[in-house]
Amino acid sequence: MINPRFSMLIKIQQEREEKLQAQFVAAQQFFQQSEQKYQGLANYRTEYIHQSQQQGSAGLQSRQYTQFVSFIGKLDQALLQQGRAVAQAKAAAEQRKQSWLAMQKKRKALELLVERSNMAELQKQLQQEQRNADEFASQQFMRRLFTAEQD
């Protein structure tokens, strides 16, 4: 049985933990999407270079070569930017994960405190019941003794 004073605290901790978990999941998904974009760009760059090389084997005009180099430069810039975005998304996801795990640890500590409190309360109740049983047995013994002396 959870002590009423702790049940609200545990509920609040669970809600906070669930919120942080949802934020971590969202950040993790964003990180994965960022990685996929990066990989898509890298694959496109490789494919573009490969196709351009095949076309270039037949000969390129200087204007086509300039456009090719310019576009590769733009793809390289996009890859750098996306790489930074991936690193930032990964750091954000890790930070969210650490926040969630810290809140999970707090909740578990609170639940342990509640469990110990409940055990202490149960121990008190058992001791009181034992005292009551001992008192009752003592009173019965005294009544029997008194009744035996009366007879």
**Number of continuous helical runs:** 2
Class by helix and strand content? mainly alpha
Radius of gyration: 36 Å
Strand content: under 5%
Give helix % range. over 70%
Briefly say what this structure is.
With 151 residues, the protein is mainly alpha-helical. Helices cover 94% and strands 0% of the residues.
Main attributes?
single chain; 151 residues; mainly alpha; 94% helix
Structure description:
The protein is mainly alpha-helical and 151 residues long. It is built from two helices and no strands. Helix 1 (4-56) runs antiparallel to helix 2.
Q: Would you spell out the secondary-structure blueprint of this structure?
A:
Elements: H1 4-56, H2 62-150
Helix pairs in contact: 1-2
